[in-house]
Structures
1.
Amino acid sequence: MKIINLIIILFLGWPSIGWPMTLNVGLQLEPPNLDPTSGAAAAIDDVVYGNIFEGLVRINEFGDIQPSLSLSWDLVNNGKSYIFYLANDVLFHNGDRFTAADVKFSFDRAKSNGSTNAKKYIFKPIVDINIIDPHTIMITLDQARPDFLFNIGLGDAVIVNEDSADRNSFNPVGTGPFKFVKWVRGDRVELVRYRKYWGPSVFLEGANFKFITDPLSAYTAMKAGDIDAFPNYPAPENLFLFKNDPDYEVVVGLTAGETILATNNRNPPFDNLLVRKAIAHAIDRSELIDGAMFGNAVPIGSHFAPNHPDYIDLTGLFPHNLDEAHKLLLLAGYPNGFNVSLKLPPPIYARRTGELIASQLGRVGIKVKIENMEWAQWIDQVLINKNYDLSIVSHVEPMDINIYANPNYYFGYDNDDFKKIIFDIESSTDAINSSQLYKLAQKKIADDAVNGYLYQLGKYGVWKAGLKGMWANYPIRSNDLRGVYFVGGEQ
Amino acid sequence: MKHFSISFIVGGGLTTLFIIAAILSFFWTPYDVELLNIKGKFATPGFEHLMGTDHFGRDILSMVMVGTRNAIAVSLIAVGIGAAIGVPLGLWAAATCMNGSRIIDELLMRGNDLIFAFPSLLLAIMITAVFGPSIINAIIAIGIFNIPVFARVSRGAALSIWPKEYISAARVAGKGSTRISYEHILPNILNLLIVQATIQFSIAIIAEASLSYVGLGSQPPDPSLGRMLNEAQTMIFFAPWLAYFPGGAIVALVLGFNLMGDGMRDILDPKLRQRSETGKASNDAS
Amino acid sequence: MSSFLLKKIISLIITLFVATGVIFILIEVVPGDPVAFMMGLSGSTEAADALRIELGLNVGPWARYVDWVWGMVNGNFGISYTYRVPVIELIRERALVSVPLTVYALFLSTAIAIPAGLISASRRGSLVDTSFMGVAQLGVAIPNFWFAILLVLFFSTTLKLFSASGFPGWDAGFLICLKALTLPAISLALPQAAILSRVMRSSALEVMNEDYIRTARAKGLNKNQALLRHGLRNAMIPVLTILGLQFSFLLAGGIIIESVFSLPGLGRLVFQSIVQRDLIVVKSIVTLLVFSVVFITFIVDLLYAAVDPRLREGN
């Protein structure tokens, strides 16, 4: 028994029954497959990241970079090269020993021509991978890139085993503390503790990730006791019922999802800054948060996560003010408003916020027609063909303010000053300087009112009282269960 | 004429009530259904809001009135489309059958079988995946499934009338089969078609509710009973009225129409009872 | 008879062939690219192209149609775009939930409807008849998803008798699975039972007026005995027709019920596949469902022809 387990037992007492237990975790979306290095589905990382698969470094629940398969690293060559010192005695779940060759294999595979890795751009700057010895590897980039270390902590950059890589989509083999047992498609994925795990032993005997799409089922399954924890509970409207119930604990945290009123800057009337400012004044964030999220969200004034150290509060830049909005519309040449469409993807936050936005813009004479669509249609029409006026969506990628530097992205924001800021950030090796630049970037897109900035999407954790160690926040999508244990009471 | 049965009176009463409410909603509802008032959300049913308010503070009674209107409109038009296309097809098939050519009849009936064979909700979902969700696409999706029903019923009924003597007389008089179909056959099967239409109408109400429950019916801010139920389901633990009233409206509307249909059937032709009962079940089941 | 059979079989094959064409066209025109969907908001175009080649989506529609139909003829339904496993395997897994659920629901609806219909018929006009038929009217009028929600509220969250959702898998034990399917089966069975009991009732009433029942009664059997011994078989014919139709309806019609109860059945698979643009799965399932209905209709036609020789002549 590892020392930390002993400490917990000494201080907190033996959890009465069911320890070590198998945890039933509820998730709303079933992953399409279990290979985090293939598609972009966040649902894959929800199950496998940190549990089955590990990367060279690991992102923890506060968004910090932690050592993982690489115990430490050095930055050499003016920040162009990383030397990673790898852990010894690491075994993949199939029994193969982990060495530097696996790192080279994984990264070469992700950057190869046939790769279907959704974040191929992470690996593009790699110009050389040099195995110094079985437990030391040097990776050289085209230039200094301070975000590289964070990026290789993402699920897309986990280390896979050459023998099993092709079957990871249905039979994932990693180095993590939990081993894949089976996947009952449409119902659950079962994991069990990997007894030969190289790191500190975990407390849980295993975990079942159960897929419950329907928000009513999520409530009833929680209340009926079928589920121990719902890390991202889908119905904020009845969260207070769990808050009032001593058998449950509710932890409202933050995701990396900036929820925005996406605005097509290419086309009139939104190519006009005055119109975009008028919309910013017409939006009433507190009503949105109260009405759509039932009070469980944090307002934002730019495209940046409020729990990030470089965040600046810009929510006061365009305060809710209908007179000001009217005045700006008059100046822009739309005294009687105009008609626009609002294309909404399926998540409930988007649908509810959409109805409220339509009503709020209606108060300044902008007549909004709501068009609900599926994700496939939304991606096709809004994201790819940019055939839209307004939309509402949460951008859940961590640290993704750089999307504004891409003039071909669906916002259609093409600003050379902003592109320069992002270019400087990407090549800056000085932490203080890059912090300044991030603040500048936030200010720039807020001033230009590129999109309507609404709120940071919350993460609504609901679990049985006494369950400890679940992530409070989603800096990246993961339900890393290595620190989860149960104290006291019955399970 | 026989006296009105109790079911006809009850059903007719309920139906009339809903139709009045639906028509009234064109001119007046207690509150504006598009008016959001977050501060007044989840008001319990009372004097101010007879059926309470929802999560956006909208008045449930007003939404039920407009939602009922939409449900009735969708169902009426969908059944109308089914009858307008299905009945001529059925009559045509019967007429060609009588003229000795089975090819048209066979083709039409195979086509019917094919539509019948498609799982209805799935096809509706696919239609809306192609054209996007809207009230018009809901009408089309429901309407398509009414075509084979009316085609079958009218073909079957027409085939039983063609051999009658007065039809032979009309043929001898030189009338073409199209004219005979419309002048002699159609009036004779009209009662049957009316009864079938009431059955189809109540099926269409449920279909519309199911479609809008999965988000494929009329789009917000236009209220629909099915979507109200969907939105209510995670709130029923603390605001049950959100689900009772729209759910009750669907049940009462369908019940009213079914009872009225039964009563009408008894009045129009008691002998029809058995046949349309079977007809009803077979298209409920598809 | 043999020429009749031949004609029917040719017509069956043509229908099936047309069905594959209709399904293929329907699915081809569904907008939304499966690859773009899988790549999400931040996917790279290179990766998308690689995926397109991997999934065989880089060839024209004709080639895909021929591949698809030829594959199905050979029992190969292709590989799911999203799950990356053979479609037939997915269907088999899901059918292990949907088929038992359907059978269970049909069993319940028959077990309720046939006695209820017979009792109503034999006591026509009585209070029992009126109340049974009143309940049946109500049963037809309640949307099944709404009924399902009420059942969950009462039996799962209030009484905690049944688990609210999910399916443990058959290796967890037969009774446990049966329990998991009980609430969904009841929600599916109620409207069907309501319809069936009305059919049963009117069919039994019809039969009771037939000569042979009168004869049997003249021989001293009472009304119920006569009905059960001599009438039931004949009264069951329309009931069985409806049951056949209900089976295929329930198999596909469980979409909403399966999602209310989070059951991994065929209906939810096909719904989810439409949303995720896993078009190959949608095509295959819709085809299977259509085929099964066409096939049941075909069998019923043959049975009728066997019973009633006039149908063979074509009039």
2.
Amino acid sequence: MQQVFFFYFALVIAATSVLVVALRNPIYSALALLIMFFHVAGLYVTLHAEFLAAVQIIVYAGAILVLYLFVVMLLNLRQDDRYHRQWPMAGIVGATLVIEAIILTVMKGWTAPVVVTGTEMTVGATTNAGAIGDVLYSTYLFPFEVASLILLVAMIGAIMLAKKDIGEC
Amino acid sequence: MTELSLRLAVTFAQILAEMSIVMITVATMTYFERKVLGWMQDRMGPMEVGPYGLLQPVADGIKLFFKEDIVPAGANKAMFALAPMLTMVVSMIGFAVIPFGPNMTLDIFGITIKPFVVADINIGVLYILAIASIGAYGIILGGWASNSKYSLLGGLRAAAQVISYELNVGLALIGVLMLAGTLSLVQITEAQAGGFWHWFIWGGRPDGFFPIHTQIFAFVVFIISAVAETNRIPFDLPEAESELVAGFFTEYSGMRFAFFVSAEYANMTLVSCVAAALFLGGWNAPYPGTIFEYIGLEQLAWVEHIVWFAAKVYFFLFLFIWIRATLPRLRYDQLMRFGWKVMLPIALANIIITSITLYFFPR
């Protein structure tokens, strides 16, 4: 049962990801991306990471993609030759990824099975969100604070950049 | 496999019952809104169809069903058809986590079900927030696919408005989540048992009477932001009649138009349910326990619980109509300034104050 769901989600994710870059109309691309976000969230649910699934939808589908759509609709761009100059770059990146995937597939038989550590075992005991909160504010406190600082700097930077055009106010 | 199919059958039955309740509420609301608006403006409201106009929703439904379905010439046909469906589905699936009645379990053919909530998932509140943020897509796509300037402007306004105000909705709920210590709507409602002062709008502690954890500021922020997120007057900029004809659904007719309108009412019902469950104690009565328990009819206590929940939800629905009849529409820059410079600081301050009081006076 779980495998059926996994392969369904994986298949749709792969197909829609291709559609995002292959479709000509940017609105359709954005919608394909939306479907992909939902199926990634579905994958998280099959892994019992419900919190992550909900956050995935709230942040990516609910906020970021709406802004994308916003911009795409305002610009209303319909050029067909948007990607022609990016072929060499895309080729390099694609080749690297394919090699990586092949290596990973070949190596799979050699790697040791994943050992369950202490943090992973606590996940089952408490609720999903509770476990994330515990880990975030104890084990990963420093990376969490650094990430918050970076986001704060980015926010101030964005406000400064936007304010520049308006002038004195 | 029989257990799985039985579970599926029970869940489908629950979904069917829940959807019927929501659709009946939506139909009632179309009548209720016109009637209440009429009374507030010293009119009669609908009176022609049936006694006191009671059959008006049926007549409206039949009329919309037989209207011509017009697709504008330059419209994007697929997106134009998709947008109303998306709006409708999104407004319906949010009800899956709403607890309509007490957290009791029922054994049917060897499986245990919760009759009054379709899915008691442990991220209930986050699920609601996710659904609410998806709601903007139908509006944006409908506005864009209509190939009309008014519709596009309405869609873009909806996008900006929903993004601005869903932030306030989320932040206003954090205080409640801290008090309850869980994301499940069922457990949040259970944490408010024990009478009027234990509801999270007051936040009274079990041992002390003084409501030090009061969430009344969060409650006000939530209600105002909920009005904005459902695109109701005075925040109905996406469909402002005097500026944009009818906003994002200018070009829609017939059942597609009906879908947009019913989705708006369903969204109102959903935020009313959330407000009732999170701030006003959900199914809990304003006195400890239930009257049915006192007179020795424990098995009927759920009736009283459901009546209280419905009363709270209808209070909020009435509040929506009341606000509509009272306040004029905001200007667009006023809307944005209000959201970011008034609502957001209040919500943030509420989080800080709640965490401080929780630290010194833990529940």
